[in-house]
Design goal:
Elements: H1 16-32, H2 37-43, H3 48-57, H4 75-88, H5 90-110, H6 113-125, E1 130-133, E2 149-153, E3 156-167, E4 174-181, E5 184-191, E6 197-201, E7 213-223, H7 236-270, E8 272-273, E9 276-277, H8 282-310, H9 316-340, H10 352-364, H11 369-381
Parallel strand pairs: 1-4
Antiparallel strand pairs: 2-3, 3-7, 4-5, 6-7, 8-9
Helix pairs in contact: 1-4, 4-5, 4-7, 5-6, 5-7, 7-8, 7-9, 7-10, 8-9, 9-10, 9-11
The structure holds flavin-adenine dinucleotide (FAD).
């Protein structure tokens, strides 16, 4: 966090290496993303492959994984990178999260040695792009009821069904597809050029416009036996991948909020009405103070969860606490910042409304706020209210 917003002096509690990683990522985003991202957002187009290769060079793809060309960074370092990525744009952070925490993690954790060798090194450099297909047109929060089927035909598998709202699907080389088999949910590595696979881009999104989202149709897709992820048994496998990605969102969301607040602080101190800067009005200071307090609380929460993760003590319900709080508060900050910018708050010349719109998607994906409330509720009460 930059100086005036670091109300609690969190910066010195990061290690020298953590600060260095954060600063290098911030510099790359300042050079390669910030000057262009408003245009990408407006046009609904993003040079995702080019970005993936740049991020790969810096070791940001599968950053927290070990071996196979991955950087093996700490959870806190990965979180700090996510914070910087999302301070530029939630869609840009999504590119990295889906590649590293969903697609690569699924292969790294549940794949065979051959699958890891085949995909992970090229995904770590950004040469190959992955996506993660769990959500379906009729099954979102309740993936256990998924309709996509994988049936045996001799040694082969035949997949039929469809996945919806899949980040990177239209540009991906490989999809991790979760499907129902006679033995329960299993994961499959599906090359996107396989006969029977089609990916259509979802247009007219009003959020996350600097991110490619698509629908995948699987029409009797025949795959060899070794396309199955051998260690992925049941729904807990994809859910564990979601926990990885949600952890990155805990950090990312505060990045978007920080960028809104930095923008707003600069605006409010220079814009004059009634003969004084907006920042000089008590009502504006009350808004700024409340937002800065929420920001630093979110940052403390992210850092705490990161330290737990690095000590291998982080539980999924704790990640739910972080995702629920930090996305909700980031969205509230973005909306409040927008009011301080007045009419300029609705302009793409400032990043605030772009962040606010993006955070609407972040609120929904990787488990909606309601689903995380239910996870926390179950932890508190011992009662599952899911079904
Ligand atoms: C831009 C974007 C990118 C995405 N990328 C991916 C991706 O890469 N891979 C992927 O698999 N998915 C992806 N998703 C899908 C996302 O994970 C789902 O949208 C999310 O899980 C919610 O599912 P749904 O949209 O079907 O909503 P629904 O499940 O239909 O929920 C609608 C509303 O009902 C509420 N609700 C549902 N069940 C309950 C309950 N039991 N109690 C109380 N309230 C409930 C929800 O909280 C929500 O408010 C993406 C979504 C977006 C918007």
């Amino acid at each position: 966090m930059t100086a005036p917003l670091d109300l609690l002096d969190l910066d010195p509690s990061l290690s020298e290496e953590e600060r260095q990683i954060r600063d290098v990522v911030r510099q790359l985003l300042d050079d390669r993303v910030r000057p262009h991202v408003a245009d990408w957002y407006e046009d609904g187009r993003v040079p995702a492959r080019e970005l993936a290769r740049e991020f790969g060079k810096l070791g940001l793809l599968g950053m927290h994984l070990t071996g196979y060309g991955c950087a093996g960074a700490s959870a806190v370092a990965y979180g700090l990178a996510c914070q910087e990525l999302e301070a530029s744009d939630s869609g840009v952070r999504s590119l990295v999260s889906v590649q590293g925490s969903l697609a690569m993690f699924a292969i790294w954790r549940y794949g065979s040695e051959e699958q890891k060798q085949r995909w992970l090194p090229s995904m770590a450099t950004g040469e190959a792009i992955g996506c993660f297909g769990l959500t379906e047109p009729d099954h979102g929060s309740d993936p256990a009821s998924m309709a996509t089927r994988a049936r045996r035909d001799g040694d082969d598998w035949v997949l039929t069904g469809g996945k919806m709202w899949i980040t990177n699907a239209p540009i991906a080389d490989v999809a991790v597809i979760w499907a129902r088999t006679d033995e329960g949910v299993r994961g499959f590595l599906v090359p996107m050029d396989e006969p029977g696979v089609t990916a259509r881009e979802i247009r007219r999104k009003m959020s996350l416009r600097a991110s490619v989202t698509g629908e995948i149709v699987l029409d009797d897709v025949r795959l060899p036996a070794d396309a199955q992820l051998p260690e992925a048994i049941g729904l807990k496998a994809p859910l564990s991948c979601l926990t990885e990605a949600r952890y990155g969102i805990v950090w990312g969301a505060v990045g978007a909020a920080r960028d809104c607040l930095e923008t707003t602080l600069a605006y409010a101190t220079t814009r004059t009405q009634f003969g004084r800067p907006l920042a000089g009005f008590q009502l504006t200071q009350a808004k700024l103070a409340d937002m800065a307090v929420e920001l630093v609380k979110g940052q403390l929460l992210a850092l705490h969860l990161g330290r737990l993760a690095d000590a291998h003590r982080l539980r999924p319900d704790q990640v739910s606490v972080g995702k629920l709080n930090n996305v909700r508060e980031a969205l509230a900050i973005a909306r409040q910042c927008r009011t301080i910018l007045g009419a300029n708050g609705v302009s793409g010349e400032y990043p605030v409304m772009r962040h606010a719109n993006n955070l609407e998607s972040v609120l929904t994906y990787e488990g909606t706020s309601e689903i995380h409330q239910l996870v926390v509720g179950q932890r508190l009460t011992g009662l599952s209210a899911f079904a």
